[in-house]
Amino acid sequence: MNLKFNDSSITVAIVGCGGFIGCHLLDAILARTRWRVFGVDLDFYRIQHRLHDERCEFMCADLADKSVVERIAKYPVVVNLAAICTPSRYMAEAPEVIRSNYDHPAALADACAKSGSWLIHFSTSEVYGRTSADSGMLVEDETELTFGPVTASRWSYATAKLLTERYIAGLKNLKWTVVRPFNFVGPYMDFMPGVDGSGIPRVLANFSSALVRGEPLKLVNGGTAKRSFTSVFDAVDFMFALFEAGLAGHLAGVVTNTANASGNVVENVAEKSPFSQAFNVGNPDNEVTIAELAYKMRKIFAEIKNVDIETVPAPEMVSGVDYYGEGYDDSMRRLPSVEKAELLLGFKAKTPIDVVLRESLTWFVGHYSSLDERRETRDER
Ligand code: UGA
Q1: Does residue 179 lie in a domain region?
Q2: Which DSSP symbol is given to 101?
Q3: Which ranges of 225-352 would DSSP assign to H, the alpha helix?
């Protein structure tokens, strides 16, 4: 497969190209390559500036439609980003969450196995399950996976995602790579409740919405859970490292010298292939508790608005079950090992948390302040 970045005959299919990660990936592909993009989604508001780009073709559809799946699998590289991935929905909509995170991607994997496309499937860091506060680094091919009981529907999503990984890995003729994102954040993440979405978005968007509205941030179960937040722009760089490794071909070797048992130096040729691998994509240097995240975001928000932090409402404690509903459960720590991506792809995320948060919050404040005011005026009428 010839994947040279300047080859204008290549078309990459992106499923979920109108979503948070998809919109940034689309922009980067158009800026850094001469490829064409076949984009599939149900919502295009984040990529309106691309709708008439002559290198793009878009389809408003989802993977429930078999003919759409077959059409996508005609392209040599297929990136599947489509998912229901907001925890607030894992309890009340478990069957739908499972269908969208297992049935649909499994059908796409079957089609790619038949057509020979390289499937880059976005899974989740949530496949590591119900980690405890003292869990160490999560290592792709080593860490044991533990989920909560069947009564805790929180794990509906992770279970479906994990089953999809196993299904993909089990397909004999499929060329695949699985990506496990660790809390990507940046502009266009999720939504502001009541403005362009409903329910509870993930933590960065939920805290940003509360700050814009002058409401207290809600700390679930004390805010002691830890996450490692990763810039979506670093994630896009990971994708380019991955594409490049695909470009370099299947079996380029990485050579290291080590001593054998008798003390002689031997050459080890490890496979440096991006295929048949699951990769963590995260930034372990950016690990914080959610309470620390709340403090950082309040501080940055006060700086953006040029006000004293004391004027920004203090966080409020809520219980997970009260906030999200019966069946909520949590991973207490998600610290990625990123050695595999470094070794096989030469990739390491580099954006520090304060930079990521300032960039995201500045965008959020600029994007939503006027939209939210317009909504309030409309509601008052
Ligand atoms: C979610 C998805 O389920 C994962 O699949 C996905 O990989 C991950 O986001 C991600 O963005 O990569 P989670 O990290 O639990 O997982 O999602 P959030 O809703 O962002 O919650 C993070 C932590 O903040 C949790 O402990 C949650 O209880 C807490 N939280 C969330 C609050 O304390 N307050 C809020 O307002 C929202």
Answers
A1: yes
A2: I
A3: 232-247, 290-305, 320-324, 339-345
Sign of CA dihedral 201, 84, 96, 65: positive
Pocket, ligand 1, Cβ cutoff 6 A? 85, 87, 124-126, 157, 181-184, 202-203, 206, 218-220, 223, 225, 227, 290, 320, 330
The number of distinct structural domains making up the chain is 1
Q: How many CB atoms lie within 10 A of CB 122?
A: 25
Q: Which position among 90, 157, 188, 368 bears the catalytic label?
A: 157
Q: Is residue 20 in some structural domain?
A: no
Strands of the sheet with 226-228, listed across from one edge: 287-289, 226-228, 333-334
Q: Which domain holds residue 213?
A: 83-254+272-369
CB 21 within 8 A of CB 81: yes
pLDDT tens column, 279-319: 999 999 999 999 999 999 999 999 999 999 999 999 999 99
**Within a domain: 32:** no
| Per-residue pLDDT tens digits for 146-188 | 999 999 999 999 999 999 999 999 999 999 999 999 999 999 9
